[in-house]
Inverse folding.
C-alpha cells in the first residue's frame, strides 16, 4: 500500500510537534509547515490526503487555501483547528469546504479518531467512484456511440467546463451527469438536480436563487436557493429547454458572473458550481425559432454529449435486463427470476419510446408478477405485447418486424392512451415519459386527443 501524506499547517511549532509525535499511523507520513504560503508549495509537489489547518483571527489566507484545495486537489480532506475566539472563522472554513473543525486544545487521541473517520470516508468514496465507473462501462459501453460518449465524459469530467447533455426522455441523462460529477474534482461536493420543467414560472427565480423573508406574499421565511445548495459541487439543470424567456435571462446572468442575489435581497454572493444541463429538445432548432436564447445556448453548449436512444443501442438491453432484475429482486427480497426466451426476444425488438426508464419499469413489473422463478410474456405490459413482432413459438426467435420504429412508437402511444381513457398523466407515467415529453410526441405524430 502506498504511504499517504498528512500536511499539518500551524504557525506554532510546538503544536505541530505534539500532533506528529502523538499520532502514529502505519500507512501515513506527516509533513509540517508553518503557514498557508508554504502549504501551497507543498501541495504543488506532493499528493496530500489530509490537511490539518489551524485557523487564525485574520483567516483570509486559510480560507483561500481551503478553496484552492477543494478546486485543485480532489479527495483531499481538511480538518480545521480553532481556538474559542475563532469559532466563527472555523464555521466559515467549513462553508468553504473543510470537513469539520475541532476546538483547541485537541488531544492526539481525539485527532486520531477524526483522521481514522476521514480515512474511512475517503476509502468508501473511492470504492463508490470505482464501482460507478465499472457500472457505466459494463452496462453501456458495448455500443460505439455510447463508448464515445463515455470517453468524452471521462475527458471533460476533470475540468469545470459547462456540459450540455442531449437525448430523449429516459435515456439516462441524469445518471450520466452523476457519473461526470463523480469523476470530477467536485465528487465529494453536492450534486443538486433541478427539473426546470417542473418549476412554476413565477417561482423559478426564487427556487434557483432563494429569497429573503418578506420578499413576496407567502415568503414567511428566508430560503436558500438550489444554486447555493450546489456550492462547491455540481448543479444539474434537467429539461433546460422548458425554461421561460425570463428565467433564461436570469440563468444567463448567473452563468456569466457566478453571482447570486436572493429575491428581495440587496447583497450578492459568489457561488462556485459546475453546471451540467440536459435537454430532450433540439435546442439548436429552438434557437432558430426564437424559443431559446442564442447567447444562453452557447454558454451551455461548451461541451456537448449526445446519448443515443435505447433502440439505437440494442446491445445494451441484454446487460441492463439482469441489472434491473437483481435490483428489484433484492428490493422485494425475492430470488432473481429468469426470462422466458420469448420475453427476451420481445424486449430485444421493442421500440422503447420511454428508453431505459421504460425498460426498468417493465422489468420491475415482471419481477413482481413472476411465478416459479420465470418472467413470462403474460407478465409484460399489454401495450408491449400488442406491439410485439411475430415470435416463433418453439425457438423464441423473431420471424418478422411488422412496423418501422417511428410508426411503432406512434401506435404504442395511441394504444396506451386508449387503454387509459386518454388520461395523459397516467399514460406518461406508464410510458416512462414526462408529461411534457408525451405532449410533444403526441404533437409530432399528429395524434388527436
Amino acid at each position: 500500500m502506498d504511504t499517504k501524506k498528512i500536511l499539518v499547517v500551524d504557525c506554532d511549532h510546538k503544536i505541530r510537534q505534539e500532533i506528529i509525535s502523538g499520532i502514529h499511523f502505519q500507512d501515513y507520513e506527516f509533513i509540517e509547515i508553518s503557514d498557508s504560503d508554504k502549504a501551497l508549495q507543498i501541495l504543488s509537489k506532493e499528493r496530500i490526503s489530509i490537511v490539518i489547518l489551524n485557523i487564525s483571527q485574520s483567516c483570509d489566507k486559510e480560507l483561500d487555501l481551503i478553496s484552492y484545495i477543494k478546486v485543485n486537489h480532489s479527495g483531499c480532506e481538511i480538518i480545521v483547528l480553532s481556538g474559542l475566539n475563532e469559532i466563527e472563522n472555523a464555521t466559515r472554513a467549513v462553508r468553504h469546504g473543510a470537513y469539520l473543525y475541532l476546538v483547541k486544545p485537541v488531544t492526539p487521541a481525539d485527532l486520531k479518531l477524526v483522521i481514522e473517520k476521514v480515512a474511512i470516508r475517503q476509502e468508501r468514496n473511492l470504492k463508490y467512484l470505482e464501482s460507478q465507473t465499472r457500472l457505466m462501462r459494463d452496462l453501456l459501453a458495448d455500443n460505439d456511440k455510447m463508448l464515445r460518449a463515455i470517453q468524452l465524459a471521462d475527458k471533460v469530467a476533470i475540468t469545470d467546463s459547462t456540459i450540455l447533455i442531449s437525448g430523449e426522455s429516459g435515456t439516462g441523462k441524469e445518471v450520466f451527469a452523476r457519473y461526470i460529477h463523480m469523476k470530477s474534482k467536485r465528487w465529494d461536493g453536492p450534486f443538486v438536480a433541478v427539473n426546470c420543467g417542473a418549476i412554476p414560472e413565477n417561482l423559478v427565480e426564487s427556487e434557483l436563487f432563494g429569497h429573503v423573508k418578506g420578499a413576496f406574499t407567502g415568503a414567511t421565511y428566508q430560503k436558500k436557493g438550489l444554486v447555493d445548495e450546489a456550492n462547491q459541487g455540481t448543479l444539474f439543470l434537467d429539461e433546460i429547454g422548458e425554461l421561460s424567456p425570463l428565467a433564461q435571462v436570469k440563468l444567463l446572468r448567473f452563468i456569466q458572473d457566478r453571482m447570486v442575489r436572493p429575491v428581495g435581497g440587496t447583497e450578492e454572493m459568489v457561488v462556485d458550481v459546475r453546471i451540467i444541463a440536459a435537454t430532450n429538445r433540439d435546442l439548436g432548432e429552438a434557437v432558430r425559432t426564437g424559443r431559446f436564447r442564442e447567447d444562453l445556448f452557447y454558454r451551455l453548449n461548451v461541451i456537448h454529449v449526445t446519448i443515443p436512444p435505447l433502440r439505437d443501442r440494442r446491445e445494451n438491453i441484454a446487460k441492463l435486463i439482469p441489472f434491473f432484475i437483481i435490483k428489484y429482486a433484492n428490493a422485494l427480497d425475492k430470488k432473481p427470476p429468469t426470462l422466458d426466451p420469448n420475453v427476451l426476444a420481445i424486449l430485444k425488438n421493442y421500440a422503447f419510446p420511454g428508453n431505459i426508464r421504460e425498460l426498468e419499469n417493465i422489468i420491475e413489473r415482471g419481477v413482481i408478477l413472476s411465478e416459479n422463478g420465470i418472467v413470462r410474456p403474460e407478465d409484460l405490459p399489454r401495450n408491449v405485447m400488442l406491439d410485439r413482432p411475430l415470435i416463433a413459438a418453439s425457438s423464441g426467435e423473431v420471424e418478422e418486424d411488422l412496423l418501422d420504429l417511428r410508426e411503432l412508437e406512434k401506435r404504442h402511444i395511441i394504444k396506451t392512451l386508449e387503454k387509459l381513457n386518454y388520461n395523459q398523466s397516467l399514460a406518461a407515467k406508464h410510458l416512462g415519459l414526462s408529461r411534457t415529453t408525451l405532449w410533444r410526441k403526441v404533437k409530432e405524430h399528429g395524434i388527436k386527443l
The CA atoms of residues 13 and 34 lie 7 Å apart.
